[in-house]
Automatic annotation (TrEMBL):
GO cellular component: small-subunit processome
Xref: InterPro entries: Fcf1/UTP23, Fcf1_PIN, PIN-like_dom_sf, PIN_dom
CDD domains in the record: PIN_Fcf1-like
Family: Belongs to the UTP23/FCF1 family. FCF1 subfamily.
Name the UniProt record assigns to this protein: rRNA-processing protein FCF1 homolog
UniProt entry keywords in alphabetical sequence: Nucleus, Ribosome biogenesis, rRNA processing
Record localization: Nucleus, Nucleolus
Gene3D superfamilies for this protein: 5'-nuclease
SUPFAM superfamilies with a match to the protein in the record: PIN domain-like (SSF88723)
Region feature Disordered, mapped onto this chain: 20-47
Organism name: Cryptotermes secundus
Segments forming domain PIN: 72-171
Any Gene Ontology biological process: ribosomal small subunit biogenesis
Amino acid sequence: QGKAKKARKIAQQRFAQMKKMISQSDPRIKEEKRALPKKKKREDPHEIKVREVPQASTALFFQYNTQLGPPYHILIDTNFVNFSIKYKLDIIQNMMDCLYAKCIAYITDCVVGELEKLGQKYRVALKIIKDPRFERLTCLHKGTYADDCLVQRVMQHKCYIVATCDRDLKRRIRKIPGVPIMYISQHRY
């Protein structure tokens, strides 16, 4: 019985390997159920070709972003605030030291919402953010996911520098042309 059982098992495995799906345009299927074979349309050489390309920002007319200039407008992410506290860095003072110009720090409602959700452990970050030197930007969308909010703002207005230490957010912002990223490296901006 053992040999018969093994032989049956091997036969089933071979059948499973051989079993394949028949395509809808196969001639073995009845004509009324058969799908028509796909034919490529020949391109007319005289027809005008239309390409859809996303409209580029007028700020990027030259090689660099013309909307960037002092005073710099900087959008701050949640983890940037947390890293500045961890390394004991004054956010606005270090931004000015980094860029050698006046900086206006902006905090969106989403970033504040994220910090409030993180709880009691991040109360120092919340206290720092509520400083009057930081300007608040109101969000009109639902939810408190700051990464999407920051990317959306930067896509609409190319006048911001994004301050973040988040790898995923940096990767997303690098795909948007003309948007600089500020991050903390070796205990400095």
